[in-house]
Fold this sequence. Notes:
elongated
Amino acid sequence: MSTDRPASKHYDIHGVEADFADLSPGLSERERRAASHRLLQIILGIFLVAVGIPMIPLAGPGWAVILVGLNMIWPDNPVVPWLRKRLPVVPDEGPIPRRYYLIGGLLMAVGVVASLLYGSQVTGWIRDTTGI
């Protein structure tokens, strides 16, 4: 089994010369950063889901917190494209502008503070109005 290729060179399956001298084993710095960022995103998503579950019966925007947490755990879920198509200010493709994250975070913070400050009064008003 003789070939006319020099022994010191490397060839791929198509016979094209390949140079593997610049490859190093392991992950690159960019891949490490991406993996650690994804791990932190999953941990934060689990935390948000865990915090959002007691918020459902108690004061606070429980369902919104749970949806944000689930989106952080599984960002490719089918809810995201559906929402992007229906929200006129969010682009269908590409990154969401930072100002929308800021606005959403501020609205969520206002909702949490308002529910903590006025939640019992609103609950009492609903009970008085509906007779429940």
